[in-house]
Design brief:
Blueprint: H1 2-20, H2 26-37, H3 44-54, H4 57-62, H5 65-69, H6 76-98, H7 106-117, E1 124-130, E2 136-144, H8 154-164, E3 168-174, H9 184-198, E4 203-210, E5 215-217
Parallel strand pairs: 3-4
Antiparallel strand pairs: 1-2, 1-3, 4-5
Helix pairs in contact: 2-3, 6-7, 8-9
């Protein structure tokens, strides 16, 4: 049985190295990753279990540590490897987006926010701070709340913008329900932040709401 697993792992690696990675189903990509941190045994069932428990490959990578710890067979080295891969992927997208003005790489902004937030199980409020050329200065989590609410304080948003020397910003938060439809409270707090920021010549370019299968731009919907 040991040699059978070893042979399977070898064939999996060879297929990947020969350029077949694009044809790999998600469970095989996870399987190959787990092979690197779990030196023995059949990891295919664990890879499939991860996808079943987390819903998708992005769900696996965005899963919090406690969720990953709850899955039998997944030890510390495994979930650290998954979180490292997720962080590297997010930084690659952010690096590409940061290289040019935000409005010229808007899809990259969406992709980055989705990679960071689409499968979170609690609400997170994030701010993207921009300079005079609309390039990214900083990306920060401002608040983290519960499954359906995150407290947002306009004064704190404006204060942090001034500290960073930002002239504009983008508000972002996720809906753990998966539905990115803005609530009345989402629209109300956005307008309050816009009002507070405007007094100090800081522009709120948009408020993005991220769901599992899409996003909503309050600016595009003409809600702000």
């Amino acid at each position: 049985m040991k040699s059978e697993h070893a042979g399977h792992r070898k064939r999996l690696r060879e297929r990947f190295l020969k350029g077949g990675e694009k044809a790999f189903p998600d469970y095989e990509l996870l399987e190959l990753l787990l092979c690197g941190v779990l030196p023995r045994g059949d990891v295919k069932p664990l890879a499939k279990k991860l996808l079943s428990e987390c819903g998708s490959l992005s769900g696996v990578l965005q899963a919090d540590i406690e969720k990953l710890k709850s899955i039998p067979g997944l030890g510390e080295s495994s979930f650290i490897a998954l979180k490292v891969i997720h962080e590297v992927a997010c930084r690659l997208v952010r690096e590409e987006t940061s290289a040019q003005p935000i409005m010229q790489s808007w899809q990259g902004v969406i992709d980055y926010c989705r990679a960071r937030m689409s499968h979170l199980t609690v609400e997170q409020f994030r701010l993207l701070f921009l300079d005079q050329k609309n390039k990214l200065i900083a990306d920060e989590v401002q608040q983290q709340g519960t499954v359906d609410r995150t407290p947002i304080f306009p004064r704190e948003v404006v204060k942090r913008s001034l500290e960073l020397g930002a002239v504009s910003l983008i508000m972002v938060h996720n809906h753990p329900s998966g539905d990115p439809t803005p609530s009345a409270a989402d629209i109300d707090i956005t307008r309050k932040v816009i009002k507070a920021a405007k007094e100090l010549d800081i522009e709120v370019l948009d408020h993005l709401i991220i769901g599992r299968c899409g996003h909503t731009s309050l600016r595009e919907k003409r809600l702000i």
